Amino acid sequence: MDVAIVIYEGFTALDATGPFEVLSRLPNVRVRFVASTPGLTAADQPGFGLVAEPLESMERPDVVVVAGGSTTQHHLHDEELLTWLRRVYETSTWTTSVCTGSLLLGAAGLLRGRRATSHWYELESVRCFGAEPTSRRVVEDGKVITAAGVSSGIDMALLVCDRLQGPAYAQAVQLGIEYDPQPPHDAGSVSKAPAEVFRSMQEMMEQHYGPSWAVRSSQASDADAS
């Protein structure tokens, strides 16, 4: 079984390494990081990177995982990547994304008419690609599975394990990595975070990442109309 995890300059580390840690425990599996620009690929936080192989090194992956990151918007016109995603989708068992990786699936035309999720900051942006924003940690629609922000990639990968090997195997993997989150604060979603925390984080996201793709698209439409 082949698993291809798509990364690019500015990907988020846990988006890629979380699913890797889970999916590498599937039987007879080969997991590879791939990119349209192969080689050492820097994450969006300093001091971490992964070595990616060429996209062509994975011609018919059984599972595709597209990582998100702070630079995802810059890769929405990467035709080499989008063409590859469309091609491997046809033969894949599961095509998945983590965080803003769903925007790349959308740009490839793979979300049209589907329910999908993304990081809360970009959730409404999936509408730009014909998808129905769904505020859930993991959304399965057909053979496409999208995960919300960053850490939810672990949940998504466990669901893939379940679908491929059954509940008992997925539970064994979960126990093996001792995935039993008990954070000190219950503020890990927009619906749970205190209002002041949400406002502060939203401001930080706007300053650090710029407008969401939905906002950029709306601004572009307004500019064209004027």
UniProtKB/TrEMBL annotation:
Report the coiled-coil segments.
Answer: none
A Pfam family this chain is assigned to: DJ-1_PfpI
Superkingdom is Bacteria
Q: Would you indicate the residue range of the signal peptide?
A: none
Q: Which residues form the DJ-1/PfpI domain?
A: 2-160
Q: Which GO terms describe its biological process?
A: regulation of DNA-templated transcription
Query: Can you name this protein?
Result: DJ-1/PfpI family protein
Organism expressing this protein natively = Sinosporangium album
